[in-house]
Specification:
6 helices; alpha/beta; about 230 residues; three-stranded parallel sheet; globular; about 35% helix
Length: about 230
Amino acid sequence: MDSTTETDQCVLKELLLEESAPFPNSLIRQNFPNFFAQKDFVANFHDSWSSLTSGDYRFAVLAHSGACLPSSSSNFYPLNFLNEVWNRNMLDLMPMFCDLPYLPNILTCAGDGMFTAPRGDRVMNPNCIILMMPNPLSTQFYDIKYTEKVLSDMKTNALQNVDKLFIVSTYNIDTLSVLDRDAVEYRYNALGCNTYGFGSCTRYIGHIYEPPSRVAERMLSIMIQG
C-alpha cells in the first residue's frame, strides 16, 4: 500500500488538520479518501483472489513510506507476514505514515523483508509483489525515468527474491486521455517487466477504482501464462 507523501496530499493535511502523521485522531475516510480506497481494494482483491484460486497461497500487506530497512525495522511497516493468517480487519490498523517514496528501496524492502523462510516464504511457490503506486506523470517522486540499466539492476538486486512484480495504480487512469493513459501504462509495464523493451510482457493489472475481481483475473491469467 502507498502510505507516502504522494497519497491524499498528506503533508498539506498535517497543516490543515493540525496533526502530524500517522494522524491518530484524524485518519478517517473523509480526510484520506485514496488511502481508504486502497484499503478497500486490498480487502476485496484478496476475496476475489481466494475465490479464483485453490487457496494454496499466502498473502501479506506492507505499507511503503520512507527509506525502508527491514533488518533494523527502519520504516518497515508490515501489516502481517506470509506465515500469519490474513484477516481483512487488520487493515483498520494500518496507519498513514506520510514519508517520501524510494522506489528501488521499496522493492528491496518488500523482497528481503517479506520473502524469508522464517516469515513464511516457500521455495517451490512463486513470489509476487503487487506494488500500489500513483500516476507517475503527476507525482514528484514516482515519475519513472530510470535507464535500462537501472531497471535491469532492480531485477538483479531489489527483486532477486521475487518472481513477478505487478503494478496496481492508486489513480483511475481511465480518466486520462488515450495518449496519457498509454504513457502511464508504458511506464508501469516497463517497471514491472524490468525493461523498456517489454514486448508482450504485461505487469500493469489495473487500478483500485475498478472491480478488484477484474484485477485478480488479469493477474491470474498472467500467472497461468508463466
